[in-house]
């Protein structure tokens, strides 16, 4: 069977809309494979994979789900089943892309299956909740979410335009895929923020000249999670963790946390890592009026109309230093920590809004005191964006990578 676009959803409540999507994709010259994740009603048209098969793959049966009449359990079962079926189809070489659609239930089922597919496989999800917080659905995968604008309930004139756009989008992705040749360059993961861009750019350019391919991740919570997921999957062979700022949001309560396991993956996998303290001077919030009331008296900086930064206090920096040391002390591979004594970001140097020597001192001292002596600690009398600092980080990682050959 040739590769086809998987059309995944509930053919009872959204059957007419899915039939429309199927027809549009096929009109573009791409085959489809329809999976029915509905439970109660009658399918609007005959799928390639029935709801009975989906329920069974999810560890139950359609008869059991109907007898229990528990919507939550039904959605969970069909989500698990659809995910297992999509994974199996992909392993068999039958998936050229995937498209889903729905409200919270349809979005949950569709996004679960999409997250099970590798990065690079086309994924389009039309959703009534796409204009809100999409992190639970997208995770660390390249899912394209399209807001439905109106509820998905029939084929009105606006819905037809939106669904056609989504169908043509996934068809175009599937039809126009670019095959990237494997050039065997070792992959390095690096973390960056706007306030550490000069450092990361200089280090990246040096490493690329040395024959590495550098994947730069924006340290926005999902960025750190994405990098660490690729480390755990074995793709990334070395880490230049310049920007560890996501720990500020996890500790203090900002909006860009990467969770409590950030800084663990490279150490667990035993791969070389060079770590610094980039942007540990800031906690992230949305627009100024969204900053929690308890922080209104703090040192706040309007980064842009949608992002407000808050300077970390000395006691917070002390705890951040302890956490970084705790995480890196677990490392099973080569690890080096490099401290920029004159500032951890573009706005934390002397004369800038977040310049705070006491906070930096608390951060650095906590790392010195708590870091395992077996881990090399280097201190440089520069700020983090000094070219000398950036090149030292890059050279250090290159040396560690070369030593492992």
TrEMBL record:
Would you identify the family this protein belongs to, as annotated? Answer: Belongs to the UPF0261 family.
Cite the InterPro entries for this sequence. Answer: Tobamovirus_resist_UPF0261, UPF0261, UPF0261_C, UPF0261_N
**The UPF0261 domain covers which part of the protein?**
4-177, 185-401
- Which Pfam families does UniProt cross-reference here? UPF0261, UPF0261_C
| Top-level taxon of origin | Bacteria
Provide the protein name. UPF0261 protein BR63_08630
């Amino acid at each position: 069977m040739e590769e086809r676009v998987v059309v995944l959803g509930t053919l009872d409540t959204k059957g007419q809309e899915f039939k429309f999507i199927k027809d549009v994709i096929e009109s573009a010259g791409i085959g489809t494979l329809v999976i029915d994740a509905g439970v109660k009603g009658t399918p609007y048209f005959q799928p390639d994979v029935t709801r009975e098969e989906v329920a069974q793959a999810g560890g139950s049966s359609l008869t059991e789900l109907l007898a229990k009449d528990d919507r939550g359990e039904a959605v969970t079962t069909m989500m698990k089943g659809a995910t297992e079926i999509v994974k199996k189809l992909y392993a068999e070489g039958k998936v050229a892309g995937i498209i889903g659609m729905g409200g919270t239930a349809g979005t949950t089922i569709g996004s679960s299956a999409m997250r099970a597919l590798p990065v690079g496989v086309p994924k389009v999800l039309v959703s009534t909740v796409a204009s809100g917080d999409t992190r639970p659905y997208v995770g660390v995968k390249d899912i394209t979410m399209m807001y439905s604008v109106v509820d998905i309930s029939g084929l009105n004139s606006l819905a037809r335009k939106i669904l056609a756009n989504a169908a043509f989008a996934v068809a175009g992705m599937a039809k126009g895929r670019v095959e990237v040749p494997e050039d065997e360059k070792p992959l390095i993961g690096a973390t960056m923020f706007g306030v550490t861009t000069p450092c990361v750019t200089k280090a990246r350019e040096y490493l690329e000249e040395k024959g590495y391919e550098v994947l730069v991740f924006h340290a926005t919570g999902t960025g750190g999670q994405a990098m660490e997921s690729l480390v755990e999957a074995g793709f990334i062979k070395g880490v230049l963790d310049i920007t560890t700022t996501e720990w500020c949001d996890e500790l203090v309560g900002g909006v860009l946390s990467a969770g409590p396991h950030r800084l663990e993956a490279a150490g667990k996998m035993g791969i070389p890592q060079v770590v610094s303290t980039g942007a540990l001077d800031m906690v992230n919030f949305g627009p100024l009026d969204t900053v929690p009331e308890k922080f209104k008296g703090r040192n706040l900086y309007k980064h842009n109309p949608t992002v407000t930064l808050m300077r970390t206090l000395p006691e917070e920096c002390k705890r951040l230093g302890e956490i970084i040391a705790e995480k890196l002390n677990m490392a099973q591979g080569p690890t080096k920590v490099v401290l920029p004594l004159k500032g951890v970001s573009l706005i934390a140097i002397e004369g800038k809004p977040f310049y705070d020597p006491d906070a930096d001192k608390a951060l650095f001292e906590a790392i010195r005191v708590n870091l395992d002596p077996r881990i090399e600690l280097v201190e440089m009398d520069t700020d983090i964006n000094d070219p000398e600092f950036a090149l030292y980080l890059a050279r250090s990682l290159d040396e560690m990578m070369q030593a492992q050959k």
